[in-house]
Amino acid sequence: MLSAQGFGGPGKMKEYHYAGAVENRFSPYAFNGGTVLAVAGEDFAIVASDTRLSEGYSIHSRDSPKCYKLTDTTVIGCSGFHGDCLTLTKIIDARLKMYKHSNNKTMTSGAIAAMLSTILYSRRFFPYYVYNIIGGLDEEGKGAVYSFDPVGSYQRDTYKAGGSASAMLQPLLDNQIGFKNMEGVQHLPLTQEKAVQLVKDVFISAAERDVYTGDALRVCVITKDGINEQTIPLRKD
Amino acid sequence: MLHSLNPHQQQNGGFSFENSRRNAVLESSLLEGAYKTPNPRKTGTTIAGMVYKDGVVLGADTRATDDMVVADKNCMKIHYIAPKIYCCGAGVAADAEMATQMMASNVELHMLNTGRPPLVAMVTRQLKQMLFRYQGHMGSSVIVGGVDVTGAHLYSVYPHGSYDKLPFLTMGSGAAAAVSVFEDRFKPNMELEEAKQLVRDAIAAGIFCDLGSGSNVDLCVITEAGVQFLRGYDKPTAKGQREGQYRYKPGTTAVLTKTETPLSLDVVDESVQLMDTE
């Protein structure tokens, strides 16, 4: 049976547009790529991100790290829409200062995470297009990772990957840090050296297959002695 | 003719547009649910070609992408058409592959029919007529280059069937990056080594500045004397060195059940084929 839709009258075919009517609207968002990763250890935390900023098929910058230092014990990794990443980090910095002035103490990682959740949810109907991961030390000095979705849902994790290559990194971390899907393997606690090595290796693999990840890797290691930053080159293609 | 088609008539091969109307309705009515038709794999490429003193140099990168994930790190984009005519393909990978294979077989038949070696112009004409017939649904952009009895020629053909004949050409998502290198340094009648270096630099510009292109540079030099296919001519990028060991001991994967079925077979022939794992 031929559909009546195709006929504009006896003996005539209706004008056929393949994609239908297309409305061109201004989109307030852009996707700038980038991958972030955070791992929590016994007495350390690592936040790592690649440094490529892209849009469409072009590269804006090869040196735009996505890790932002918040306090001496907390680093946040933000990827997604760069405009919102910058504004969000500015707002968090301002709120940290306000807290410091009213309460006479620095915000703890857990407090920052809770605050970020409320900041993100306050924009529930025009969200910040940012995937956040906070890494730092909690009040007891143990490593803490908090991962967020764009509208503020968060939880504390041991390890989390976010951003464009997150789907490639997360299963690898589940296997290597969480010992998932393995039998008869010793569950050794994660040392700082092993964690840094793992982070570098997973980013090397991510850069192979994700076009948005590459150029360089910025690794921030947070310990009670402070925040140590390293930059390692990645594929530039 | 769609209005004369009835369900009992056999389709004669070629594309079937039965689902086009349904897809169009689905796309427009389910826009809120962000419905997207599945994307065919594109090569997201940088291809380039130029005419030099003794012939033609064609170049291509080797990355094939599936949206924004690398599907193949070392694919071949320079295809054989005739002994001295080669073709670089960009756009939808399957379309480029099929179009060039069709051209290669047509050229062979034409050579047997006419008893003459093929002309680059003949390949271009057949290619553009085929692509125009498919009204742009075959999404392949190609650069055809080669040497024939009339000399060295370079053509580019677009998915809808238009073509250009120029001394240097670039196509694919990295075309802008590559053509900027050509515009800077191209001169007519360049020497071989200079020409190879220029094409290599143009492709490298696409590899580094375009996210859809990457991995290695393949070159193909075609002259009156013959063809030099330089697969992996330059490898400007390298995979980083991993520090950890990620091999698993046998027994790491849990075995839930095991069934053994003995097959009584004789080994007749053994051959080993290496996998391209890098």
UniProtKB/TrEMBL annotation, chain A:
<dbReference type="GO" id="GO:0005839">
    <property type="term" value="C:proteasome core complex"/>
</dbReference>
<dbReference type="GO" id="GO:0007420">
    <property type="term" value="P:brain development"/>
</dbReference>
<dbReference type="GO" id="GO:0071361">
    <property type="term" value="P:cellular response to ethanol"/>
</dbReference>
<keyword id="KW-0539">Nucleus</keyword>
<dbReference type="InterPro" id="IPR029055">
    <property type="entry name" value="Ntn_hydrolases_N"/>
</dbReference>
<dbReference type="GO" id="GO:0005737">
    <property type="term" value="C:cytoplasm"/>
</dbReference>
<comment type="similarity">
    <text>Belongs to the peptidase T1B family.</text>
</comment>
<keyword id="KW-0647">Proteasome</keyword>
<dbReference type="InterPro" id="IPR016050">
    <property type="entry name" value="Proteasome_bsu_CS"/>
</dbReference>
<dbReference type="InterPro" id="IPR023333">
    <property type="entry name" value="Proteasome_suB-type"/>
</dbReference>
<keyword id="KW-0963">Cytoplasm</keyword>
<dbReference type="InterPro" id="IPR001353">
    <property type="entry name" value="Proteasome_sua/b"/>
</dbReference>
<dbReference type="Pfam" id="PF00227">
    <property type="entry name" value="Proteasome"/>
</dbReference>
<comment type="function">
    <text>Component of the proteasome, a multicatalytic proteinase complex which is characterized by its ability to cleave peptides with Arg, Phe, Tyr, Leu, and Glu adjacent to the leaving group at neutral or slightly basic pH. The proteasome has an ATP-dependent proteolytic activity.</text>
</comment>
<dbReference type="GO" id="GO:0005634">
    <property type="term" value="C:nucleus"/>
</dbReference>
<dbReference type="GO" id="GO:0051603">
    <property type="term" value="P:proteolysis involved in protein catabolic process"/>
</dbReference>
<protein>
    <recommendedName>
        <fullName>Proteasome subunit beta</fullName>
    </recommendedName>
</protein>
<comment type="subunit">
    <text>Component of the proteasome complex.</text>
</comment>
From TrEMBL, chain B:
<keyword id="KW-0888">Threonine protease</keyword>
<dbReference type="GO" id="GO:0004298">
    <property type="term" value="F:threonine-type endopeptidase activity"/>
</dbReference>
<keyword id="KW-0647">Proteasome</keyword>
<comment type="subunit">
    <text>Component of the proteasome complex.</text>
</comment>
<dbReference type="InterPro" id="IPR024689">
    <property type="entry name" value="Proteasome_bsu_C"/>
</dbReference>
<dbReference type="GO" id="GO:0051603">
    <property type="term" value="P:proteolysis involved in protein catabolic process"/>
</dbReference>
<dbReference type="InterPro" id="IPR016050">
    <property type="entry name" value="Proteasome_bsu_CS"/>
</dbReference>
<dbReference type="InterPro" id="IPR023333">
    <property type="entry name" value="Proteasome_suB-type"/>
</dbReference>
<keyword id="KW-0378">Hydrolase</keyword>
<dbReference type="InterPro" id="IPR001353">
    <property type="entry name" value="Proteasome_sua/b"/>
</dbReference>
<feature type="domain" description="Proteasome beta subunit C-terminal">
    <location>
        <begin position="236"/>
        <end position="272"/>
    </location>
</feature>
<keyword id="KW-0645">Protease</keyword>
<dbReference type="GO" id="GO:0005839">
    <property type="term" value="C:proteasome core complex"/>
</dbReference>
<comment type="similarity">
    <text>Belongs to the peptidase T1B family.</text>
</comment>
<dbReference type="GO" id="GO:0005737">
    <property type="term" value="C:cytoplasm"/>
</dbReference>
<dbReference type="Pfam" id="PF00227">
    <property type="entry name" value="Proteasome"/>
</dbReference>
<dbReference type="InterPro" id="IPR029055">
    <property type="entry name" value="Ntn_hydrolases_N"/>
</dbReference>
<protein>
    <recommendedName>
        <fullName>Proteasome subunit beta</fullName>
    </recommendedName>
</protein>
<dbReference type="GO" id="GO:0005634">
    <property type="term" value="C:nucleus"/>
</dbReference>
<keyword id="KW-0963">Cytoplasm</keyword>
<comment type="function">
    <text>Component of the proteasome, a multicatalytic proteinase complex which is characterized by its ability to cleave peptides with Arg, Phe, Tyr, Leu, and Glu adjacent to the leaving group at neutral or slightly basic pH. The proteasome has an ATP-dependent proteolytic activity.</text>
</comment>
<dbReference type="Pfam" id="PF12465">
    <property type="entry name" value="Pr_beta_C"/>
</dbReference>
